[in-house]
Amino acid sequence: MKTINIISTLAIPLLLISCNNYLNVSPTTQISTENFYETDAQVDQALTGVYGCLKPIALYSLQMSEQRSDNMWITNDTKQNDNVDIALFNSDGLVKDETIADCWADYFTIISSANKLLDKLDEEILDDADLQTEYKAEAKFLRALAYFDLVRYFGRVPAPTHSLSTEEAFALGQSEAVDVYSKIIVPDLRYAVDKLPETSPADYLGKAHSERATKIAAKALLGRVYLTMAGYPLNLTAKKDSAAILLKNVIDYADTNNKYWAKDMSQWNQMWIHENDNKYFIFEIQYINASGQGNPYTPNAMTKPSTSIWCNPNLIAGNAHIYVENSLRDHYRDTLENVYDKRGWGTISTSSIASDEQTTIDTENLIYVKFFENKIKRNFLGYTDMDAEIVDRTYWPQNFPILRLEDVMLMYAEIVGNTAEGRKMVNQIRERAGLDDIVASVSEDEFQKIVANERRYELAGEGVRWHDLVRHNEYVSTLQNKFINDDSTSDKSYASLATRVTKNSYLYPIPLQQIQVRKGLYTQNPGY
After folding, report:
1. 3-class DSSP state of 486
2. What stretch of H or E contains 281?
């Protein structure tokens, strides 16, 4: 478990220049802020370091959204007890949960690194004013992304926008979530929308970086932010209008420029292969095949294979007690063997006898193979086996999408409702998956339910489902029903756990080590 806390993070005198080495930048964490930022190259390296701090987000999307939602089952005999606390709503254990404490620390590391860079950029340290503005816009995008997740996970959090001294950090209390949205997240993203280029920001050498944040990514994220603010718990419904404008702009851009859309299931399955960097995702966390630089999600999301037909079994975590939730599993197949939704093959399992039609789903308990480039998947899609290149579990190079077009299309459909535009967005996705079109005669309520389900099927495994349930204020009933209705999946009883899910469950607790930093500084969230 990390010993870092918010106080020490915000008061760090050295910028975490190569946070997790995200873009292959050599570590320079020993360089002080007094003699750094002297060249354009150092400023660019500092920005690269902020991007590098995104690396753990993929794992938290699995642990704190997927495992919390009705997409996944984790039984109480699983050895990873911190994940069990999350999945089974154990409020007593969650206060001391290591995953939650690490999540808090890692997100504030992103913010601390971004704040330090923004402080320096405010001093007009670059000769090129346009480049300085672009770097500021990227840093603000990353800071907004971190704060957005923090308020969705924890609610009231400390919200510094500049580097703090130790004394300032120890005096900084929590801000209301609505204030973090209105004073930091929205202004940061508006700045990014105004100042970022539509594609591939350039560095100080003029080299384009397709992996960095763009105007389109900022619009997509701000659209998601507005839609979130329109839902529970803020319920600022007028924000939907602002969200619709931004999301439609992203869709129109993608359509005009032929970007981000996988036209058939072959391309859809290939979008999860790491060789397709920056082709299908609007913004993604990129990982590389190197020690400590792989996607931490991949080895933690699936059951250990019983044979080497999938991959070297030692390359994944081997947690044998993680399952796809029954209703989600059953959606992807109408019988045990026959595929109903073509996305099932590339979402929850890769068949050992896959054909061009992908007509079977293997019965092994593999979970989200979107981010698992096993031998069968790579061979079927025409890629070479890479197992020999993966030395240990920290090498998996699968990228993780933060924003992709299908998410944007379905958010837009949710807002415009059962209109020709709304049905077009949903049907385009359903047709590719081999499902029937939505007809105009469905009611608005039916349409909204179809959109919510389509988001579940299309975005399964991507850390979206829990936030959708909270936004629609359906997390209590959905999770209670999961424990009651899926109780027959095991010889153990889970129905009694339904009472653990309450209205307070939409937030995680402030980690205990943060509460104990200074008495009275933080107030614990209700229910913990």
Report:
1. coil
2. strand 281-285
